[in-house]
Design a protein that fits this description.
By secondary structure, the protein is an alpha+beta fold. It has a single domain, classed as Electron Transport, Fmn-binding Protein, Chain A (Pnp Oxidase, Chain A), CATH 2.30.110.10. It is 16% helix and 40% strand. The protein has 3 helices and 8 strands; from the N terminus they run βαββββαββαβ. It has helices at 19-23, 62-69, 102-112, and strands at residues 2-3, 28-33, 39-43, 47-49, 52-58, 72-78, 85-97, 123-137. Strands 1, 2, 3, 4, 5, 6, 7 and 8 form an 8-stranded antiparallel beta sheet that branches. A hairpin with a 6-residue loop joins strand 6 (72-78) and strand 7.
Length: 146
């Protein structure tokens, strides 16, 4: 069993034994910081790409407002049992328009097996440079979600 106190969060990169876990389409909870400094969490789709997180946000939504004011985020990726999880923290290093919802479709295919249905949305893609991580339970043994 692995477990690390948040004050002792190891620096990136994530060890290779955890990569299958974070590359799988798992439920996740994203934490951002509101402009008034209070934290907020939201269930979120994500993808893992070369040590970075890829996230999609509505151009007018609270998550994009939050990361524009404070680019520091955290994401907890849950296993089949929430006792198995990997949490990462980092900084949004790139925001780009999601032309034609290409990145949102990528996430939708990953989680739903089809393109995103609400085609009227305008979205932004956020790339997060992961700086620290910790885990709990045994995510390295969890494999792909059931």
């Amino acid at each position: 069993m692995h477990g690390y106190a948040p004050a002792a969060m190891p620096k990136a990169p994530l060890p290779p034994e955890f990569l299958p876990f974070v590359r799988a389409p798992r439920p996740a909870v994203l934490a951002t910081v509101r402009p008034d400094g209070t934290p907020v969490t939201t269930a979120s789709w994500f993808d893992w790409e070369d040590g970075r997180l890829l996230l999609s946000m509505k151009t007018t939504g609270p998550r994009i407002r939050n990361v524009r004011a404070n680019p520091h985020v955290a994401l907890t990726i849950l296993g089949d049992s929430w006792y198995d999880h990997v949490s990462v923290s980092g900084t949004v290093v790139e925001l780009r328009a999601d032309e034609g919802l290409a990145d949102l479709d990528r996430l939708s295919w990953r989680y739903e097996g089809k393109p995103y249905a609400k085609r009227h949305l305008e979205c932004v893609t956020a790339l997060v440079e992961v700086e620290r991580w910790h885990c709990w339970g045994d995510p390295a043994a969890a494999g792909n979600p059931s």
